[in-house]
Amino acid sequence: MLRWRQWQERIGRHLLQGITLGCVLLAGLMILGLLLKSWPLLQEQNLWSMLVSRDWRPHRGEFGYFPFLAGTLWVTGGAMLLAVPLALLTATYLSEYASHRVCTLFKPLIDLLAGIPSVVYGVWGVLTIVPLVKNEVAPWFGRFTSGYCILSASLVLAVMTLPVIIHVSLEVMQAVPRELRESALSLGATRWQTVKKVVLRKALPGLLAANVLGFARAFGETMAVIMVAGNVARVPGSIFDPAYPLPALIANNYGEMMSVPRYDAALMLAALLLLGVVLGFSVLSRLVLQRLQRRWR
Amino acid sequence: MTGEHVIHARDLNVYYGQLHVLKDITVAIPRSKITAIIGPSGCGKSTLLRSFNRLLETMDNVRLAGSVRLGPQDVYAPGVDVTLIRKKMGLLAQRPFPLPMSIYENVAFGPRLHGIRNRRALDRLVEDNLQLTGLWSEVRDRLHTPAVELSIGQQQRLCLARGLAVEPEVILADEPTSALDPQSSRRIEECFRHLKDRYSIVMVTHILRQARRLADYILFLYMGELVEHGPAEQMFNAPRRELTREYVQGVIS
């Protein structure tokens, strides 16, 4: 009897270990696969010159990624600029000011936003945001646009990113012990002073993680962006210009024009770039986090 | 400000939702003495302490009736600046909760809130208050390191110094030694003995021997009611109520 239980223990342990290892390995294999597939292109052309080149002419073997990188950064940057302050203020309100009842009412509603399929956001973008930007926002600035532009994509992405950042930020802020708040309050701090100088500071590492999560979501989002960004392979000059973000490039073109030499490799490289930026960002934020933690804690 | 008593509570009733946690508390806390609130857990000791500096109202679903006065000031009067009330009553919690910043910044936090910007004045305040809690000699070389790197006992004395830095009249302490080792507990108790000439101290404790060692005045709470209060001598040696006698002799707990 005892022996069987020990066997169970041993099998279970190794099984779990294997599954965990498998997950990590899968990510590694994906990176390796992308690298192998894009290798032919990397051997022929210099990576850096492709990254900074503006010319995307697959038929002539010219693969300049700069328009796509710039498009992705514009769209994502715009989305974060809109989403981060709103999300942090909402999380602060729900965690620090709202009553328990209001908070428990709003939390599931916000999570509901996160569960809406991205294609639905895309349709909403086409039907509502694009005309709004075309007919109201752009004329107000004295500009003309089709509406399929960076601003539209950023607005849609911001709404998609909000619930993610709010959810995680709220969890993080609610994890700050109430006694810490009481310490500041009992010294005569107002509630806002307590929030600003103690709660947000204590929660900062987690808040940073929340925003990186939001960034990764926005950066990799494909469906909604494809539908509203305009998809023109040119370096955008303003928020009213169309953009062609990397995920849209891959999704739109993979499987087509595959007879063009190196096209396949070029799209794989695009995927690798996408992955690299997201990974790079999370590594960077981890480093920043460690520095901050050493200073404050 | 003089007067024999520092805090007056009158007909104080507190409810958590439907739960009646404090019942008709009327009591006066003596000035420049150590007052201990004793009683079994769940009897409302901490609630009474938190009703003094209006920390109760930061919680949901709390209702309070009755009045509390700090000296001549009605704590719950409409329009009163609650931050100034709280500033006059420093709080020491069960476990130390240093703010997420350096040792120096922890002590300077309160004074800065109240508008002290001058670097030398702040330096002076930090040193003085760390001296008062006996921490100065231990931390003077690492004032700008994170406060969480101190030992738990040191952290609690830092929290005391932080509270003293805003020059309160009263120190409210909620079982301030319950998370500490005996040595650190003794240092906190020593601090209290030194400080009671300048401050009125109200401490919640469930350790009868600690109350015996420290307290000049005792409040005995049982199931939300103030059963008896009086000078420590009398409460321990000649209590008037049977319940008090049983509690201080350890028959009930």
Main sheet characteristics of chain A? 2 strands, antiparallel
The helix/strand order of chain B is EEEHEEHEHHHHEHEHEEHH
Residues in helices of chain B, as a percent range: 25-40%
Mean pLDDT of chain B: 92
Runs of chain B in which pLDDT lies below 50 for 5 or more consecutive residues are none
> What is the helix fraction of residues of chain A, given as a range?
over 70%
CATH superfamily of the largest domain in chain B: P-loop containing nucleotide triphosphate hydrolases
Number of domains of chain B: 2
State the secondary-structure class of chain A: mainly alpha
End-to-end C-alpha gap of chain B: 38 Å
What is the CATH C level class of the largest domain in chain B, in words?
Alpha Beta
Assembly annotation: heterodimer
Number of extended strands of chain A: 2
Q: Quick one: which chains have the greatest interface? A: A-B, 25 and 30 residues
Class from helix and strand fractions of chain B? alpha/beta
Q: So what's the overall shape of chain A?
A: globular
Proportion of strand residues of chain B? 25-35%
Q: Can you tell me the CATH architecture of the largest domain in chain A?
A: Orthogonal Bundle
Reported by name, the CATH topology of the largest domain in chain A is MetI-like fold
- Which residue ranges of chain A are poorly predicted, with pLDDT under 50 across at least 5 consecutive positions? none
Could you give a quick summary of the protein structure above?
The complex is a heterodimer of chains A (297) and B (253). Chain A is mainly alpha-helical and 297 residues long.
